[in-house]
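Hello forum,

I keep getting stuck at the same step: I have a sequence, I want structure tokens, and every attempt I make locally crashes halfway through. Rather than fight my setup again tonight, could one of you with a working pipeline run this one for me? It's a single chain of 197 residues.
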Amino acid sequence: MTIKDQVIALKRERIVEAAAQLFYDRGYDRTTLEAVADSLGVTKPFIYGHFKSKAELLGVICTCGVSASLSAIDNIAAMDLSPTNKLSLLGRDFLIAVLNNQRNIAILTREEKNLEPDDFLRLSNLRREFDAKLVALLREGVATGEFNVKDPFVAALSIGGLVSWAYVWYRPHGRLSLDALADEVSALILSMAGVTR
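Reply #2:
Ran it on my machine without issues. Output:
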């Protein structure tokens, strides 16, 4: 990456961060690009130099959490581990990915209706890809005799729902640290999969 590319990436990152905070605080409909520009101390043309529309910004923001979850399952799938160990790690890493993107996932859930059709389709495909990879991991565990799951598809959706919904109730300064919570959720997921070890 050249210095120019790094500067452009930093500017885009600052715009996305400012827009995400405003979308989260005010809602997408009540946030203008002018408000995003004002929060950064720049002009609206500065924003347009990096993003063609408010809708494009929404698409980028909403992609963050889904992409982080997909990266977590891809990294674990590539490891030479048993299905049980993979699922245990995934429980932790998936939860951490969701909670590290808590604001963006809240925006996705709340503002999905405002996504451009192409962004909606792309995000739906990313979610389906995650689900398919989790189903494959559960089927692998059933095949090796490590998991007791009658319907891996329903189990995958249930695990996804358990973890994805954590963005609603998790508080950074709550009773459990993020690591402790990740351990608890990982243990719950192993229980859901009927781990036989």
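The domain at 64-192 is CATH 1.10.357.10 (Tetracycline Repressor; domain 2). If your local run keeps crashing, start a new thread with the error log.
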